[in-house]
Amino acid sequence: RASVIMKAEEGCPEAPMKDFYMYRTQTDEDYAPVNQDMANIGGVLWYLHNEIIWHHYLRVGSFSSIPKTRIERYRVKTRATCALHRLGMNFGVVNAYDLGKCTGPFGCENLHHFGPVVGCESWNKGADNHFPHKQWMGVVKYPNAMWYSLPGACSSQKFWGKTHKCERKEPSGACKEGDEPTGAFDCTYTYKKVGEISIDELEGIPNFGALMKSGGYEYSRASDK
Questions:
Q1: Could you state, in order of their start, the residue ranges of all structural domains in the chain?
Q2: 69, 174 in Cβ contact below 8 A?
Q3: Burial (CB count within 10 angstroms: exposed 0-12, middle 13-18, buried 19+), residue 22
Q4: Alpha-carbon distance 91 to 18, whole Å?
Q5: Residue 3 has pLDDT above 60, yes or no
Q6: What is the model's pLDDT at position 67?
Q7: Using one digit for the tens of pLDDT, what is the confidence trace for 58-115?
Q8: Rounded CA gap, 126 and 138, in Å?
Q9: What is the dihedral of CA 105, 107, 108, 109, to 10 degrees?
Q10: Beta partners for residue 20, in sequence order
C-alpha cells in the first residue's frame, strides 16, 4: 500500500548486474524515464503500430493527447534487490504508469515487497514472464518484444501530487548520478540517454504536415500498410 514505508536494504552484491538498452517513444518534451514504461526495439515498434501511427492527422496515442515525435535510446544497468534475487529473479513484474503514478497490477504491492526493481515482460510464446498482459501474446508480431518499467520516487502519486514525505517513504530505484546499481532499495538501476531518432526519419517522411494535407497516412489498420 502507498502508506507502507519500504524497508531499506543495504544492497545485494550477489545479484548480477545487467547492462543493456531500453527505448521510449517520446514527445518533444524532455524528462527523465523514471516512473515510466520502456521497451526494447520490438516492444517500442509494436507500441508505435498499435497505439500511435494509426491515429490519422495527429500522431498521438489512444491514451495520450500529445503527439509523439521520436524514439529515445537509453543505456540501462540494473541489479535486483536481495528480496527478489532470493527467489531466483533479476527483474520484477512490469508495472503500468500513468502520469508518473503506478496503476497496477494489484495496487503495485510488488514495489513494497521487493523494492523499486526494474520490471520486465516478454510477449514471446511460452514465456514465463508474460504477466500482466498475457492477452498480447500471439498479437505482437515483433520477435522478442518486451516491455520494462522503471520505478521512481513516490510512485503512488501522479506528477503533481508527489511530496518530499512521500518520496522518503517510497524511494526511487534510480541510483544517484555516478553510482552503479547496488541492489539497495534506492539504487536498483541507472540510465543514460545515448541517442534518438525522429519518427519522421524512421518512416522516411520529409514533412509530416504536408503528408497529412495531401491525403496521405502513416499506417492503415484496415490494409495493414
A1: 18-213
A2: no
A3: buried
A4: 10
A5: no
A6: 86
A7: 776 655 668 899 999 999 999 999 999 999 999 999 999 999 999 989 889 999 999 9
A8: 10
A9: -120
A10: 76
Cell digits of residue 80: 535486483
> According to the model, what pLDDT value does residue 188 have?
98
Amino acid at 72: E
78/67 Cα distance (integer angstroms): 30
Q: Each residue of 113-132: b (16+ CB within 10 Å) or e?
A: ebbbbbbbbbbeeeeebbee
Using CA atoms, how far apart are residues 198 and 71, in angstroms rounded to an integer? 6
* SS3 readout for the chain: CCCCCCCCCCCCCCCCCEEEEEEEEECCCCCCCCCEEEECHHHHHHHHHHHHCCCCCCCCCCCCCCCCCEEEEEEEEECCCHHHHCCCCCCECCCEEECCEEEECHHHCHHHHHCCCCEEEECCCCCCCCCCCHHHCCCCCCCCCEEEEECCCCCCCCHHHCCHHHHHHCCCCECCCCCCCCCECCECEEEEEEEEEEHHHHHCCCCHHHHHHCCCCCCCCCCCC
C-alpha cell at 79: 541489479
In this predicted structure, what is the pLDDT of residue 122?
A: 87
Task: Give yes or no for a contact between 212 and 59, defined as CB atoms under 8 angstroms apart.
Answer: no
Q: What is the pLDDT of residues 12-69, one digit of tens each?
A: 999 999 999 999 999 999 999 999 999 999 999 999 988 888 876 677 665 566 889 9
